[in-house]
Write a structure and sequence with these properties.
Elements lengths: L2 E4 L23 E7 L14 E2 L6 E3 L3 E7 L10 E5 L7 E2 L2 H9 L3 E6 L7 H17 L10 E6 L1 H12 L9 E4 L12 H8 L5 H6 L13 E6 L7 H13 L4 E6 L10 H14 L6
Length: 291
């Protein structure tokens, strides 16, 4: 039976409900609300109501609350591994992939699709949500989750977010692993889109701001093991965006692998079976699952 849970772990709480109308994704085993702009430490200062981008109801805009849509690992296959999935959307929408979450669950990995507050020029709120998802999953030992086996993944803008989380959290809190898919790592390149950079950094962002948010500049020897997946013919986020991050990982001695598929564009759909097999192989190599 589906449950809706409230999990309030904000560092600063303000009484009262959010002024904005919020919406939820359907189809998960559980929906967990972490907080909104009135109860979280940081706010993205969004004043519009949350909206579906279209009738398919798989992409949200103007998000002002953080919710986790949890897909439980099959009991007979539960590996103890859990993963927070940060959807892409160019920092202007949150584009969910329920099929991805279900695939992880079917392979014994509890998955949480994260509805994060879009930055709206206030990136701290988005990071707060992403970090909160990792911490929450570690608390759910009742789902058979091993707190030492919680990782992160994301595609495109979500790939940037998952690597940012990998480096921003304290060393004793970092995720166990990271799997960015065609992540927009380099914020200094035109192809990342001025619109996306404005959404992330604000209208008056400087080149120095973009350098600071280019995640290859955040890597340390404590960055968690990382698997990068991308396509060489991606014309939205060029392959050298991930290559720059891989180079930084290698330079700092971090366990890392990178798969660059020749075709597939800004998506992994045409390489679905191959890249999913690569994920399971890599998690097995790390000793997190048994194949």
């Amino acid at each position: 039976m589906k449950r809706i849970l409230t999990f309030a772990i904000a560092l600063a709480c303000v009484a009262g409900a959010s002024a904005q109308k919020t919406i939820s994704l359907e189809g998960a085993d559980e929906t967990v609300r972490l907080w909104d702009n009135t109860t979280a430490k940081y706010s993205n200062h969004q004043t519009a109501d949350e909206q579906w981008r279209n009738n398919r109801k798989l992409a949200m805009t103007h998000t002002s609350s953080c919710e986790l849509y949890i897909f439980k690992a099959k009991a007979e296959k539960n590996t103890g591994v859990a993963i927070a999935i940060y959807p892409g959307g160019g920092f202007t929408s949150v584009n969910f992939s329920i099929s991805t979450a279900k695939w992880y669950a079917e392979n014994g990995i509890t998955a949480a699709l994260v509805k994060y507050r879009l930055p709206n020029g206030y990136k701290e709120a988005m990071l707060e949500d992403a970090v909160g998802a990792v911490r929450y999953l570690r608390s759910r030992t009742d789902l058979g989750i091993d707190p030492a086996k919680v990782g992160v993944t994301g595609s495109s803008a979500g790939g940037h977010l998952c690597t940012w989380v990998s480096n921003a959290m304290a060393d004793d809190e970092k995720p166990a692993f990271a799997i960015p898919l065609y992540g927009s790592m380099l914020r200094t390149e035109f192809y990342t889109g001025r619109k996306a950079n404005i959404a992330l950094l604000g209208k008056r962002f400087t080149y120095e701001d973009a350098v600071a948010m280019s995640v290859q500049n955040m890597v340390t020897p404590q960055t968690p093991p990382t698997l990068l997946l991308l396509c060489d013919d991606d014309n939205v986020v060029k392959s050298y965006s991930s290559a720059a991050y891989y180079e930084a990982l290698a330079r700092h001695g971090v366990k890392a692998s990178m798969h660059i598929y020749p075709r597939g564009g800004h998506s992994m759909k045409s390489n679905l079976n191959e890249h999913r097999a690569a994920i399971l192989d890599w998690l097995s190599w790390l000793g997190l699952i048994q194949k």
